[in-house]
Amino acid sequence: MKALTSMATRHLLEELLADHAVELTATGGVDAEQRVSGGEAVDLVFLSSAALTRLSASGAIDAETITPLVRSEVAVAVPSGSDEPAVRPAGAAFSDAQGVRDALRSAASVGYSTGPSGSALVRMVEQWGLADELGDRLRQAPPGIPVARLVAAGEADLGFQQLSELVGEPGVQILGVLPGDCAIETTFSGAVTTTAKDPAAARRILAALAAVDAEPAKRRHAFRPA
To answer: In whole angstroms, what is the distance from residue 168 CA to residue 210 CA?
Structure first.
């Protein structure tokens, strides 16, 4: 059985699928959606719920099988100057949205992802009227490249990405998640494709991933159960 996932959930799924006969491929979320939409032969796909809704509308996946698995918060990171893996902090990076706006305005460069967190950040910047002011200081990481890599390399001095993709990365310090008044949260789900060779078996795997027994692993990987 073959599965395709975005980068956000790859480490979690590698752990949860270790006892299942599933060949997991991880790539950028935009690329994964395009590959499934284009008819790539996979049995399971793990993406944001919004992406799966689009794929169900095109007939690429079975809409009835869409299964919410985890909720992921967007966090803020800065360069650490250390090779130590980044650890998950408690609480928010700033006290409120004004603190986030101030940090954006003072940053020389801001890294964000191609996935749903990046799209949400850009919308927020536009709503705050900062798009023109920030201009080319906003730097989108290439598909499949973690924002943490840009931050660690000094190509961005402020980075926004799913918390799960920042934890454990070297060269960055995670300041915390976005505060409640501007929080960005994405639900990642799994679904069975309409070309799956054994849909029943794929459904059973999805059920196992959504079970209570999987919750400790989800929390270890900086997610909240859906």
So the answer is: 24
